[in-house]
Amino acid sequence: MAVRLGWLAAPACRRVLKRAFSLHKTHSIKDMENTVQLVRNIVPPLTAKKHKGQDGRIGIVGGCQEYTGAPYFAAISALKVGADLSHVFCTREAAPVIKSYSPELIVHPVLDSPDAVREVEKWLPRLHALVVGPGLGRDDALLENVKGILEASKARAIPVVIDADGLWLIAQQPLLIQGYEKAVLTPNYMEFGRLFEAVLREPPDSSDRRGAVLRLSQALGNVTVVQKGEQDVISDGKQVLECNLQGSNRRCGGQGDLLSGSLGVMVHWALHAGSEKTNGFSPLLVAAFGACSLTRQCNHQAFRKHGRSTTTTDMIAEIGPAFSRLFET
User: Fold this and answer.
1) What is the pLDDT of residues 74-128, one digit of tens each?
2) How far apart are CA 164 and CA 288, in angstroms?
3) Alpha helices (H) along 156-254
4) What's the pTM?
5) Residue 283 CA to chain centroid, in angstroms?
C-alpha cells in the first residue's frame, strides 16, 4: 500500500522535514512528506459554521496531592492544539491547585470519591477521548477507580490515551486494554520495559526497538504503542513508524504530558476523519505520528530560545507556531 504522491511541502515545512523523519516498515510509506500530509488530512478546518465542542472535548484522568502539573500540562496542551473543551478529573485536594493554573480548564474533584466511576461516567457521553494517567500516582484506591473508568470508556468505545501511572496500572493488569484497538499507550524507556515483561514474560531486545514495539502491540491485540525516546517508535501491530524529527537534548519533566494531551485531540480528529483521509493506514498511527512530531518541534523551538533553562511551560508556548509550521504552512 502506498501513499498518493503529488504533495509538495511548503519551504518552511520542508526545512523541518529535512531535520529527519524516518520509517521502518512492515508496509511502506515511501515519502515522509506524504506522511506529514496524512496528519494534515485529519486536521479539521476552522470555519464559522461549527459550534463549540465539535473539534474536540477531551478528558484528562489524573491529578493528586503530589502531582498537579502533569494533568494541567496535558489539558492545556489539548486546548492549544485545537480542542474546544478540556476536562480534568482529579482528586479533591488537587482540584483547587489545577483550577488556579488556568481558567480555561473544567476541573472535576471526583477521582478519590467513592462514586468516582459513576461521576466520571456521567460525562463520558460528552467526551471524544480520554487521556488517562498524568499525575495519577499509585494509590490503590485511585487505581481501582481508574480501572472502572477504563472499563466504562471501553463499553462506550471512547478512545483512550494511557500514559505515566496509567501505564503502571496496565502493567499490573494488561487485560484492561487487551484487544481494545482504540487505545494508545505512550511509554518511556522504563515504562516500556515494564510493560513488555508483564505481557511477554521476557525483557525487550534493546538492539531492536522497532521489533520490540511491534511485538508488544501485537501481543496486546494491536493496541497502538508509542515508545518515546531518542527516536519515537510507533506501532499498531501491523506497521511501524519512527519519528526522528529533531527536538533538543533538554529532558525536563512534563514533555510527555504535552504529547499525551495533544495525542488525545489528534486521535479524535483521526477517527472522525476516517481511514479514507489516511489512505487506508490506521488513523491512530497517523495521530500518534502527528503528536510525536509536534512535541519534538515544540521542544526544538523552545530550546532555541531558552537553551538549558527550557521547561515544559516554554514548550507549550510554542504549540501554536509549531503546529502551524508543521501542518498548516
Assistant:
1) 999 999 999 999 999 999 999 999 999 999 999 999 999 999 999 999 999 999 9
2) 16
3) 165-172, 189-200, 209-219
4) 0.91
5) 13
